[in-house]
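User: I'm putting together notes for a lab meeting next week and I want to include a structural view of one of the chains we've been expressing. I don't have a solved structure, so I'd like a prediction I can at least talk through. The sequence is below, exactly as it appears in our construct file.
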Amino acid sequence: MAVIIRMTKMTDTMTEGVIANWLKGEGSNVKSGDIIAEVETDKSTMEFENFEDGVMLYVGVKAGDAVPIDAPIAIVGKAGEDIAALKSQFGNQAPTAAPFSTPPAEQPTKTAAPAVDLSSIKAVAERMPLKTDTMTEGVIAKWLVQVGSKVKSGDIVGEVETDKATMELECFSDGVVLYIAVEAGQAVPVNGIYMIVGEAGANYQAILDAEKGTPSATVTAVSVQEAAPVEASKPNATAASTPTGRIVASPLAKRLAKEKGLDINLLKGSGEFGRIIKRDIDNYTPAVAETKTVSAPAALSSGSPYQESFHTERVSQMRKTIARRLSESLFTAPHFYLTMSINMDNAIKARKSINEVVTTKVSFNDMVIKAVAAALKKHPKVNSSWLGDTIRYNEHVHVGVAVAVDEGLLVPVIRFTDTKSLSQIGAEVKEFAKRAKDKKLQPADWEGSTFTVSNLGMFGIEEFTAIINPPDACILAVGGINEVPVVKNGQIVVGNVMKVTLSCDHRVVDGAVGSAFLQTFKSLLEDPIRLLA
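Assistant: Thanks for the context. Below is the predicted structure for the 533-residue chain, given as C-alpha cells.
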C-alpha cells in the first residue's frame, strides 16, 4: 500500500527543511534505511532517510524548495498503484521532480540525462562526514596522501577543520587514490565528494558525472590537475545568466550573497552550466587595493606621505559557527541580566588551605563551577532549555566551561559536575584547556551542556555580560576578584569582591528564579566549606 513520505524534524530548532538534492527519483526502488534526499536544515545539510520499501511513485517537491515540518514530499508504494488520492494531499505544490533534479529554471533547458550505471566502476567516492551536529562543510587543513597513494580502510588521509575543531579524516575504502577534489585550505560540503579511491585506471570520472547528472566521459589517465578546484570568480567576471538575463544561482547561494551584502551580478558561477553555488560566494573577494598612499594632515607632517595598510584573513569554520550561533541566540532568545557582588575573603582562605593538601591545585574558577553545580540542584528551573512547545528541565548537571582558543571559543563540558570534587573538576578543566589549544577536542567533549560558565577574571575584567550558549537557558559571566572598600561590622575595611552576571533566557527563567539561584550561589562561595560536603 502506497504511503506518503513527510518532512521530519531533524534538529530541535527546525521548522522547515529545504530539499537540497534528490538522490532517488520517480521509478527508483527504495528500501527502509535508504537515503533518498539531502535536506538543508537550520543547522546543516543532512541525509533524509526513507523508512518504507517499494518504488518512488511520486516526488512532489522540487529541489531548492522549503517544506514545513510534517508536510508531504514524496510517495512510496508498489509499482502501478493508484495514488491519485494521496497526490491530492500535496495541494498546489511543485510538479514532479526528475531523478537527481536540480532546482527548475535555475539552469538552461536541456534534456535530462539518464542515470549513470556505476555497477561496473571499480572505484568509490569518499564523502565528507558530519563530524559535529552544527557542521555544514569541512575545510581540508592538510592532505596526508596524494593522487596515486595506496590506502586502506581506516587510514587517516588528511586533517579536516570543522566548525569546532581540527579532526582526522578517515578513509573507508581500499585501493589507490584516483582523485582529490580540493586543495588544502578549501572547503567540501557535508556529504560532498572529497576523494575517490579504487583500482588504478578505473573510470572515476563516471562517478563525478553521476554526481552532476551528466553522461560519463572516458578517462584513460589520472592526473593531479584533475583534482584542482574551479578557480574562484574575479570581481569583474560576468555572472551566469539565462538568455532572458536572469541570474542562474542556487537558492543557498542567493541567500548567502544577500546575507553578506554581495552583488550576485558580479560573480561568475563554477557550478554546472555556470551556475553560481555556495563555493563561489565563499571564494569571492572584492577588488580592493591593499595599500594606498595618502597625504598626511599638515598638522602631523610637513608633506611626508603616510601609507594606510591592512590585511585580510579567511574566516575559520569555528569563527563562522560562533558568529552564527551567538547571533541566533542573542536575536531569538530574549536576554535579561542579573548582576551580584560576592565577598571572596573566605573563598581565598579556603582555597589556600585546600591547595596545601591536594595534588591537583584548585583554582577560583573550579570553586565557581562547583558552586554553580550545587546551586543548579537547588534551582532546577535554571538548569533547563527552551524547545519551542516544551521546556526541558534537566535532572542532571553538565556545566560547560568556556575556553578561549586562537580562533574563538570552545565550551567543553564537565559532566555530572555536582558529583565531582573540586580537585576532579580542576583536573578536567586543565585537561580540556590543553586539548582545546591543541585542537584535539572531540564532539562528545562539547555536547550536552545544561549551563555555561564564562570567566574573564584572569584577564583583569571586572564585570561583563555573556551571550547564552544554546540550548542552555542561562550563562554566568564571572569577573575578577578586586580589593575594594566594604562595610564590615559598621567599619569600612578592604574586602575581596567578585562580580558575576547571570544572562537568562526570559522564555524559560524569570527574574525571581534567576535571583534565587544567584543568592544560593553567593552563599556557597561566601561559606565555601559547604562546597566540600
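A couple of points you could mention at the meeting. The chain has a mean pLDDT of 81. The chain has ten helices and 28 strands.

User: Perfect, that's what I needed.
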